[in-house]
Recover the amino acids of this structure.
C-alpha cells in the first residue's frame, strides 16, 4: 500500500489558558481542567486562517518528502473552517507550494476527520497510479460559542501528509478501515458563526461508537492485536474521551502519550489526529507501528495501521512539531476575543 | 485599502512564493521581479527566480498608525529584510513586537493573510517574515 513520504505539522504561537476562559464565565478552573483535561489551547494570530496554517504544514511536509512540487498530482484540504464558503483552500495551498497548475485539488469537510479522509483519497490515487504523490492536509481554526464548553477546547493547528509509493515512504500505511453513520452529535448550519452539539449524542452514540467501530474493524480486517502496536493516536476533542475509549478497548495509557496533544494544544479539529500522528512520527523508530483512529461528528471514524521505515531519518529535514508547541505566548481573554473576531462590528 | 482583483492576481507568484527575477548577464537578483536589468539594459538576460525567503533584518519599525485596512493588526512590525540572494525587500514581521527584534536577526518567509477587511471581498494572502531563533 501507499505510505507517508513526508509530513509536517504546525500550531500557532498564541495560547490561552483554560483558567483564563473559566474566570470570564465564572466557572471553576479546576473543574474545567480536570473535566476536559485541557490546560491551554492554541489561538491563531489575526493574520492566520486554515489556508495559511495549511501552507505552513505543507511546506514542512514537502521539505521532508524532498520531491518536486510538480510531481504532486492531488491536493486535498480537510477543514470545517475553510476561509471561503465558495473558493477552495486547496488551490491557495497548491499555488503557495508551487504545485500548480497540473494537478487536481479539492476541499473536504467532515467535521474533525476531513484530514484523514484526504489521506485515504490520496492512498487510492497513489495505489491506482493515477498520481505519483498526493498531499492531504487537516487544518482548522475552530470556534466555540463564548461561554460554551467548546470554547475551552476549540483550537487551531494543521498537519500535512505527502502520500506516495511504499518504497519511498518514511512510514508505510499497511491498511485502513472506516466506520460511518448519520448521527446528530454536532453540526453548524451554513450561516451560523458557532456550532451546536446534540447533548447526549456527543459521547456514546457519537465518538465512542464510531471510534470503536473503526478500531475493531481494522484490527479484525488485519487479524491484528493491540500488543503489536507501539503507539495509538485517537481523535482528541478533549483528553477525557481518548483516554476513556483506550481504556474500554484495552489500550495501555502509556501508548497514548506521544499522540495526545489536546491538554496543551486544544482540539485542532481536522488537524487533531493528524497532529497527534505527526508528534508520534517525530519520535518513532524504524520498525515501530502506529495505530491511528480519527473521528468526525456527523459521524465517522477512519482507522490506519502504520509502520515506520528506515526512511524516517528524513524527518530531520523539517521542523518538529515540538518547536511550534514550545514557542508560545499567552494572551488574556480580551486579546483572544480580538484575535478570534468575537467583538461585534469587527 | 482596496486593491484591484487584477493587481492581486498578478502579484500571486511574487506574494505566495517570492518569485522574483535574476539577470543572467550580471547575476543581479530582483525582488519584486523586473523585466529589464537596469545595469545591463539591452545586454541583460532576465529569468524568473524563486527567492528562498531567508534573510536578515536590515532595519525595522513598529507601526502604531496603520493605513486603512490594517487597523486590527496594529501595532505590528515592518522590516526591511536583506534577502540572502542579495536584495532588500519590505515585509511585516509576525508574532513579534519591536522589543523582540534586533538589526541583523535572521528571518524566514511565512504565508499569512495580508488584507481581509472586506467581509464580501477576496482575501489577499502573501509572504511576511518570522524570526528564526
Ligand atoms: Zn544585468
Amino acid at each position: 500500500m501507499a505510505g507517508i513520504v513526508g509530513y509536517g505539522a504546525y500550531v500557532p504561537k498564541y495560547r490561552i489558558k483554560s483558567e483564563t476562559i473559566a474566570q470570564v464565565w465564572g466557572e471553576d478552573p479546576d473543574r474545567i481542567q480536570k473535566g476536559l483535561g485541557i490546560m491551554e489551547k492554541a489561538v491563531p494570530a489575526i493574520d492566520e486562517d486554515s489556508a495559511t496554517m495549511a501552507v505552513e504544514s505543507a511546506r514542512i511536509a514537502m521539505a521532508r518528502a524532498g520531491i518536486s512540487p510538480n510531481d504532486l498530482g492531488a491536493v486535498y484540504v480537510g477543514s470545517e473552517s475553510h476561509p471561503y464558503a465558495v473558493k477552495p483552500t486547496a488551490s491557495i495551498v497548491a499555488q503557495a507550494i508551487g504545485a500548480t497548475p497540473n494537478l487536481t485539488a479539492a476541499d473536504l469537510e467532515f467535521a474533525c476527520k476531513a484530514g484523514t479522509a484526504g489521506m485515504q483519497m490520496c492512498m487510492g490515487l497513489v495505489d491506482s497510479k493515477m498520481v505519483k504523490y498526493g498531499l492531504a492536509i487537516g487544518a482548522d481554526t475552530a470556534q466555540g460559542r463564548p461561554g460554551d464548553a467548546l470554547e475551552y477546547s476549540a483550537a487551531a493547528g494543521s498537519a500535512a501528509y505527502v502520500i506516495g509509493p511504499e518504497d519511498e515512504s518514511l512510514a508505510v500505511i499497511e491498511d485502513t478501515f472506516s466506520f460511518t453513520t448519520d448521527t446528530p452529535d454536532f453540526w453548524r448550519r451554513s450561516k451560523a458563526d458557532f456550532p451546536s452539539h446534540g447533548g447526549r449524542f456527543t459521547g456514546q452514540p457519537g465518538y465512542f461508537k464510531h471510534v470503536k467501530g473503526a478500531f475493531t474493524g481494522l484490527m479484525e480486517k488485519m487479524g491484528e492485536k493491540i500488543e503489536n502496536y507501539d503507539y495509538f493516536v485517537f481523535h482528541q476533542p478533549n483528553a477525557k474521551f481518548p483516554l476513556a475509549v483506550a481504556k474500554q478497548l484495552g489500550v495501555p495509557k502509556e501508548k497514548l502519550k506521544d499522540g495526545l496533544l489536546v491538554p496543551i494544544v486544544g482540539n485542532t479539529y481536522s488537524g487533531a489526529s493528524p497532529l497527534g500522528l505527526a508528534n508520534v512520527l517525530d519520535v518513532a523508530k524504524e520498525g515501530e507501528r502506529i495505530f491511528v483512529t480519527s473521528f468526525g461528528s456527523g459521524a465517522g471514524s477512519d482507522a490506519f495501521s502504520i509502520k515506520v521505515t528506515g526512511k524516517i531519518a528524513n524527518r530531520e529535514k523539517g521542523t518538529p512539531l515540538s518547536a511550534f508547541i514550545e514557542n508560545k505566548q499567552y494572551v488574556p481573554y480580551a486579546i483572544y476575543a480580538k484575535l478570534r473576531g468575537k467583538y461585534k462590528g469587527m | 485599502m482596496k486593491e484591484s482583483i487584477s493587481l492581486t492576481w498578478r502579484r500571486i507568484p511574487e506574494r505566495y512564493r517570492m518569485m522574483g527575477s535574476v539577470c543572467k548577464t550580471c547575476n543581479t537578483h530582483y525582488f519584486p521581479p523586473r523585466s529589464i536589468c537596469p545595469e545591463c539594459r539591452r545586454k541583460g538576460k532576465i529569468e524568473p527566480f524563486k527567492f528562498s525567503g531567508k534573510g536578515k533584518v536590515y532595519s525595522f519599525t513598529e507601526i502604531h498608525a496603520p493605513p486603512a485596512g490594517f487597523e486590527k493588526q496594529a501595532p505590528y512590525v515592518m522590516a526591511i529584510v536583506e534577502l540572502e540572494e542579495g536584495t532588500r525587500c519590505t515585509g511585516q514581521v509576525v508574532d513579534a513586537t519591536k522589543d523582540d527584534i534586533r538589526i541583523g536577526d535572521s528571518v524566514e518567509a511565512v504565508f499569512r493573510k495580508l488584507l481581509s477587511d472586506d467581509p464580501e471581498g477576496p482575501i489577499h494572502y502573501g509572504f511576511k517574515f518570522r524570526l528564526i531563533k
Summary: The pocket of zinc ion is lined by residues B 23, 25-26, 28, 37, 39-40, 44 (CB under 6 Å).
